[in-house]
């Protein structure tokens, strides 16, 4: 269970992207990019096939480029994240850490679909 303390005001919608990585409706493209970069770093440490790693890393790189764009293409960002999630979930013999990252990627896609403009 994720817990955090809130000592002031109303929290509203908060997306627990993964572990202690949170985004809200007020999060910026910079916050989103930081979340993608963190997931990218986590994936670099996990044991997944090199061919998959390279393609997923390229997709995450394109997602970061969109996050830095003046007018990011939300559909492309969400599509990339959903493809990454599906690819991670379809890998056989991967551990819980890989599936945890897949869940985090799915949560990022859900946030991006709703708030990333």
Q: What report would you give on this structure?
A:
Keywords: Membrane, Transmembrane, Transmembrane helix. The chain crosses the membrane at residues 93-113. Pfam families: DUF5955 (PF19380). The protein is mainly α. It has a domain at 50-117. It contains four helices and two strands. A hairpin with a 2-residue loop joins strand 1 and strand 2 (21-24). Helix 1 packs antiparallel against helix 2, helix 1 packs antiparallel against helix 4 and helix 3 runs antiparallel to helix 4.
List the helices and strands and how they pair.
Elements: E1 14-18, E2 21-24, H1 29-45, H2 50-68, H3 74-90, H4 96-115
Antiparallel strand pairs: 1-2
In short:
The chain has 117 residues and is mostly helical.
**What is the helix content?**
55-70%
| Element order: H for helix, E for strand | EEHHHH
How far apart the termini lie comes to: 30 Å
Largest β-sheet summary = 2 strands, antiparallel
Q: Compute the gyration radius: what is it? A: 14 Å
* Sequence of strands across the biggest β-sheet: 1-2
| Protein structure class | mainly alpha
Q: Give the overall shape.
A: globular
Number of strands: 2
Strand content: 5-15%
Number of helices: 4
Unreliable runs: none
In round numbers, the mean pLDDT is 83
């Amino acid at each position: 269970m994720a817990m955090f303390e809130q000592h002031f005001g109303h929290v509203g919608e908060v997306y627990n992207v993964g572990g202690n990585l949170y985004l809200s409706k007020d999060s910026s493209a910079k916050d989103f990019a930081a979340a993608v970069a963190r997931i990218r770093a986590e994936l670099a440490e996990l044991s997944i096939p090199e061919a998959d790693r390279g393609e997923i890393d390229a997709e995450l790189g394109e997602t970061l480029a969109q996050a830095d764009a003046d007018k990011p293409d939300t559909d492309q960002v969400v599509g990339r994240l959903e493809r990454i999630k599906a690819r991670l979930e379809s890998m056989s013999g991967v551990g819980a850490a890989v599936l945890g990252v897949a869940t985090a990627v799915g949560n990022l896609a859900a946030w991006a679909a709703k708030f990333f403009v």
